[in-house]
């Protein structure tokens, strides 16, 4: 069971702490425990209720009426409420509540609706990425269980594979060539899958090698495929003390390719010395801007 401070709830839900206090005091929306020093401490049930309340408030429902709803009535109202495609915060909160409840049908429907209404790439950038950032906060508080994380990851993976499969199957002659891979032991694939989609949607040619690729394979791949760029996402691997040697080795194995290094491990090491042709985009928007700047055609 998670334990949240009021600032945790603010960061996760997007509802200001003073509003949470007011809802708690006037309407009894939440029932926090108190530490010996009288500090509020909230549970998983409080977070789920707050996310649902925030969703209904975002739809224009009055807090005084929401406060009188039972848990079942609250959940039913959230499911049946209309969705504003431009209210991204409300969509993120709905996804979080569905994830915490392990409500697979609702998660799938919410993601499907977002994709249909916004388009795949906009849905990922405007809804899914903020949602995953909130999930990261929940990880830090110990409030996301492996089953919840696996549920979300597998649904998103299905969506990304389906969207990529729906793209035109072939790139034009002379298209810029990319190799996408994750190193040995690295299994966090969602960012790489989205990069694969974004590149193919922009008429680049992609050799997608996926998870857990031994580094020695890249030498023959680069010799055979002659990529313009080699891209990887580093979330958990390699070990931090091996990151510099991994990057140096990658540059040696693919000396003629640009290196695109993305992910929290790369960003957490400002002292990392990048090879001359390497870049490390900080955000996915930076990666997309890099791709647009390069253009699909090789020089």
Automatic annotation (TrEMBL):
Q: Which domain of life is it from?
A: Bacteria
| Limits of the HTH merR-type domain | 1-72
The keyword Transcription regulation belongs to this UniProt entry's keyword annotation: yes
- Keyword vocabulary terms for this entry: DNA-binding, Repressor, Transcription, Transcription regulation
Q: Does the keyword DNA-binding apply?
A: yes
Q: Which residues form the B12-binding domain?
A: 175-299
Q: Which CDD domains match?
A: HTH_MlrA-CarA (cd01104)
Protein name (Swiss-Prot/TrEMBL) = MerR family transcriptional regulator
């Amino acid at each position: 069971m998670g334990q949240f401070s009021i600032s945790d709830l603010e960061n996760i839900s997007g509802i200001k702490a003073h509003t949470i206090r007011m809802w708690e005091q006037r309407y009894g929306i939440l029932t926090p425990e108190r530490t010996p020093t009288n500090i509020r401490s909230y549970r998983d049930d409080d977070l789920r209720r707050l996310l649902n309340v925030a969703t209904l408030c975002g739809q224009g429902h009055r807090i005084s009426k929401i406060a009188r709803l039972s848990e079942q009535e609250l959940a039913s109202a959230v499911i049946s409420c209309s969705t504003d495609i431009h209210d991204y915060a409300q969509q993120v909160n709905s996804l979080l509540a569905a994830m915490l409840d392990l409500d697979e049908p609702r998660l799938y429907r919410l993601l499907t609706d977002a994709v249909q209404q916004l388009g795949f790439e906009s849905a990922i950038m405007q809804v899914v990425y903020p949602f995953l950032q909130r999930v990261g906060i929940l990880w830090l508080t110990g409030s996301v269980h492996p089953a919840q994380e696996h549920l979300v990851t597998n649904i998103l993976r299905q969506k990304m594979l389906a969207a990529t499969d729906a793209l035109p199957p072939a790139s034009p002659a002379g298209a810029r060539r990319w190799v996408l891979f994750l190193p040995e032991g690295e299994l966090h694939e969602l960012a790489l899958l989205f990069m694969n989609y974004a590149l193919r949607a922009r008429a680049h040619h992609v050799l997608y090698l996926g998870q857990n690729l031994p580094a020695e394979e890249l030498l023959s791949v680069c010799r055979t495929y002659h990529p313009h760029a080699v891209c990887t996402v580093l979330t958990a691997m390699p070990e931090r003390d091996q990151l510099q040697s991994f990057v140096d080795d990658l540059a040696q194995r693919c000396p003629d390719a640009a290196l695109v290094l993305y992910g929290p491990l790369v960003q957490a090491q400002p002292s990392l010395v990048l090879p001359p042709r390497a870049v490390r985009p900080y955000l996915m928007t930076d990666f997309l801007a890099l791709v647009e700047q390069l253009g699909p055609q090789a020089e």
